Amino acid sequence: MTALRDLIELTRLPAALTVPGDTLAGAAAAGSLPSWRAAPLAASSACLYWAGMALNDYADRELDAQERPERPIPSGRVSPSTALRLAGGLTLAGLTLAATAGPRPLAVALPLAGAVWTYDLIAKPTVAGPLVMGTTRFLDVLMGGTANPRRALPAALALGVHTTAVTVLSRGEVHGTSTRTATATVATTGVVASAAAIQSLRDTSQPPAARIAGAALAGTYASAVGQTQGDAVARPDPATVRRATRRGIHGMVPLQASLIARRGHLGIAAGLLALGPLLRAAAKVVSPT
Length: 289
Prior knowledge:
Helices cover 76% and strands 0% of the residues. It has one domain (4-283). Helix 8 (149-170) runs antiparallel to helix 11 (238-250) and helix 8 runs antiparallel to helix 12 (252-261). The protein has helices at 4-11, 20-30, 38-59, 61-67, 80-100, 103-123, 129-144, 149-170, 179-202, 208-234, 238-250, 252-261, 266-273, 275-283. The chain is built from 14 helices and no strands.
């Protein structure tokens, strides 16, 4: 019988704390915060994230048997059919939750779910894999920003580009990466952080406190993520790459907080930042990768 602990590990349950900030950042950019739709959309994002994690291990079960035999499926703790059914059920739950927020969010959730399944079952081992993964975060932000997609576009691009870069780096978790790849990842982080800070400071429609907070949090993101990515430049071995990948996943939270704070929602941004210690503690128990 499959234990709850095994399903938690399969879905990387705590790592979903990095997801609700996507739709919140999109809604903040679109000018639709606060709204009751924030709750079902955040829950929808989490369900689709968990579905992707379960589907990832289903698709990689043969490779994991060689490279990561401790994972739930190759270790025999979770059957492939259970993982596939769980992925399907969570995808349906995510789409249902999006539908409760209206037809526009559902219209984005459908291609988002498609991108999740495409990545895990088709694109992951290809050169298009990182771009498809980045597209999932891009669409996740837009799902929250359907009230004004054009205004939500910069936030969606920021998180999409960040995710693409982290995914490229994560390909070296088992065998290591190259110095060139690690350097490109650091450079991308710098570009994303700089763009977020500059856009925040230039947004004269917001009060000074919001603009400064947005820029400061962009700096926090750059520091938190860039340090471990810099370590990977110096030592592109598997252990260092895994640490940089984990930090890249957790680093989405201060980036999301920056995008939210610059729109004047300082309380929501602070609430997201409070998730940081929880994520770090949870990562010691359940790996986010």
